[in-house]
Amino acid sequence: MISFVNVDLELGNKTVLKDVNLSIQPGQLVYIVGKSGSGKTTLLKALYMEIKPVRGEVSIGGYSSSTIKRRQIPLLRRKLGVVFQDFRLLEDRTVYDNLAFVLMVTNTRQSLIRDRVMHALEQVGLAHTAKQMPLNLSGGEQQRVAIARALVREPIAILADEPTGNLDPDTSLEILEYLKKINETGIMVIVATHDYELARNHPSTTMLIQGQQLCETTFGDCSAGYRPVKPSCIPGTSAEGKSNAPERL
Ligand SMILES: Nc1ncnc2c1ncn2[C@@H]1O[C@H](COP(=O)(O)OP(=O)(O)OP(=O)(O)O)[C@@H](O)[C@H]1O
């Protein structure tokens, strides 16, 4: 499970997000939408503990931002797969080697590496590209390789930061379909995007960052509008179970 409880996040001296509360359960797919500069990347960075909250607590994969030691951060990150807008593939290595590299740095057995790499490529329909160089693939295919690379360590969650930002609308939908299929295997998927319409076409829990606040809606229930999430929604907090009636915005 992932949770944010009363979290404030700052960059430099600027407060980017204030009093964020969020709970994501195993198997959930969540969109974080918000305009450019609203703080989506900042929120994801708090999840992989590149940014520490100035107030409140982020919990993920059994670690807490309040107690995690610096040396434990790489261990947390091994449990997470991160996907970026610009793919970030190693251009001088084959598709296979891009994935294998991730496992080699953690001393995974060679026989296991091959199985894991090919399985991850199969999950994005690209097993046949294993020997190709990334730049010989289309943008959409390169992003699918990046998703496979995120999968190869069998993460508890995939964090995707604007994964469709460099892609045309049809390819963007295709990428979201792959992320949805991966989510159906039980992996939490968190997609940050400024493309509200894209998220809208894929009904699921959608969080909106607006004026430093994180608000929630579920498409199909838009009549309730977006509501700020209160700590009462976060299991395990002292306020759990108290009312969090939707507020019309
Ligand atoms: N190092 C920094 N110091 C101060 N402010 C920063 C720093 N880095 C980013 N910011 C500001 O923090 C805010 C949030 O940035 P963030 O990258 O999280 O937004 P975003 O929603 O991901 O935007 P985009 O969709 O354009 O990537 C922005 O206003 C940005 O200008």
Fill in the keyword field for this structure.
249 residues; alpha/beta; Rossmann fold; seven-stranded mixed sheet; four-stranded antiparallel sheet; 7 helices; 26% strand; globular; binds adenosine-5'-triphosphate
Structure in words:
- GO terms for molecular function: ATP binding; ATP hydrolysis activity; transmembrane transporter activity.
- Part of the ABC transporter FtsEX involved in cellular division. Important for assembly or stability of the septal ring.
- Belongs to the ABC transporter superfamily.
- This protein has 249 residues and is of the alpha/beta class.
- It folds into two domains: 1-79 and 156-165 and 173-249, Rossmann fold (3-Layer(aba) Sandwich); 89-154, no CATH class.
- Helices cover 29% and strands 26% of the residues.
- It has seven helices and eleven strands.
- It has helices spanning 40-47, 73-78, 95-104, 110-123, 139-151, 169-184, 196-200; strands spanning 2-11, 14-24, 29-33, 55-60, 63-64, 80-84, 157-161, 188-193, 205-210, 213-218, 227-228.
- The protein has a seven-stranded mixed β-sheet with strand order 6-7-8-3-9-10-11, with helices on both faces. Strands 2-1-4-5 form a four-stranded antiparallel β-sheet, with helices on one face.
- The protein is globular, with a radius of gyration of 18 Å.
- The two termini are 28 Å apart.
